[in-house]
TrEMBL record:
PANTHER family: POLYSACCHARIDE EXPORT PROTEIN GFCE-RELATED. Residues 43-141 form the Polysaccharide export protein N-terminal domain. The keyword Calcium does not apply. PROSITE patterns: PROKAR_LIPOPROTEIN. The keyword Transmembrane applies. Pfam families: Poly_export (PF02563). The chain crosses the membrane at residues 240-260. Keywords: Membrane, Signal, Transmembrane, Transmembrane helix. It comes from Flaviramulus multivorans. InterPro entries: Poly_export (IPR049712), Poly_export_N (IPR003715). This is Polysaccharide biosynthesis/export family protein.
């Protein structure tokens, strides 16, 4: 019987230690007790540099709209309404060599350029090859939505597109149904694409210092992976009540087994 008691005590200790606490669930906690008022929380995101497979929305405006009609497909004007198919077929996709095929100008290399730099580049080439300075053209370049993937312990895994210039990781996760109670908020993985390949980064979303991380703001084509907590693998409950229910079931089985073996 002593062995049964020892086993029961160990089981109870393991299950109660597996209960989720606020430290596991609450985002952006001030763990160091620093003065938040004097703490610069937000990491200023660096300008995004265009990569292969990005889709750009480029519009050209001028005093005489007929002059720029060739550069602005009608369907592109509906891009802001969320017509992703329109963005795919009428936007400018960056090919494997980092080029886009632009009307009249032909191939323009945009790989590694920021949005502002691409605007200047397209405008400069148009003035050089097609327009005169008196045309007073104005070029606008935008990414055709911020596309990212969320998988793991979240409410809804999948590929999402948000039509915003800046999205932080908490907004991105909220859009995917938020992290489940069984998800590890302390070690969220961000798989980011670079010219030389993909790299895996870690961010602790329970620490307020996450807001200063270079991965707090997501980038196009990011993959956000939320790992399960270790306690999920041992089948522990998420609350004390669930653990008590589990313990009661184990005790019932153990007691029944003990008396059955004793009577044999």
């Amino acid at each position: 019987m002593n062995r049964y008691l020892i086993f029961i005590c160990l089981t109870v200790c393991i299950l109660f230690s597996s209960c989720l606490t606020n430290k596991d669930l609450v985002y952006l906690q001030n763990k160091d007790g620093a003065d938040i008022e004097t703490f610069n929380l937000t990491e200023q995101p660096k300008p995004y540099k265009v990569q292969v497979n990005d889709i750009l929305s480029i519009t050209v405006k001028a005093l005489d709209e007929e002059l720029v009609g060739i550069f602005n497909p009608v369907e592109t004007t509906n891009a802001s309404s969320g017509n992703q198919a329109g963005l795919y077929f009428n936007g400018f996709t960056v090919d494997l060599h980092g080029n886009i095929e632009f009307p009249v100008l032909g191939k323009i290399n945009v790989l590694g350029f920021t949005i502002d730099e691409i605007e200047d580049k397209v405008e400069s080439e148009l003035l050089k090859q097609y327009f005169k300075e008196t045309a007073e053209i104005f070029v606008t370049v935008k990414l055709s939505g911020l596309r990212y993937t969320v998988t793991g312990e979240v409410g809804g895994t999948g590929v999402y597109t948000l039509f915003q210039d800046r999205v932080n990781i908490i907004e991105a996760l909220a859009n995917a149904g938020d992290i489940a109670l069984t998800g590890d908020r302390k070690d969220v993985l961000v798989i980011r694409q670079y010219p030389d390949g993909q790299k895996i980064h870690h961010i602790d979303l329970t620490d307020i210092k996450a807001m200063k991380s270079p991965f707090y703001y997501i980038q196009p084509n990011d993959i956000i992976l939320v790992k399960p907590l270790k306690r999920k693998s041992i089948g522990a409950g998420q609350t004390a009540f669930q653990n008590l229910t589990t313990i009661a079931s184990i005790l019932s089985v153990l007691v029944s087994t003990y008396f059955l073996t004793k009577n044999l």
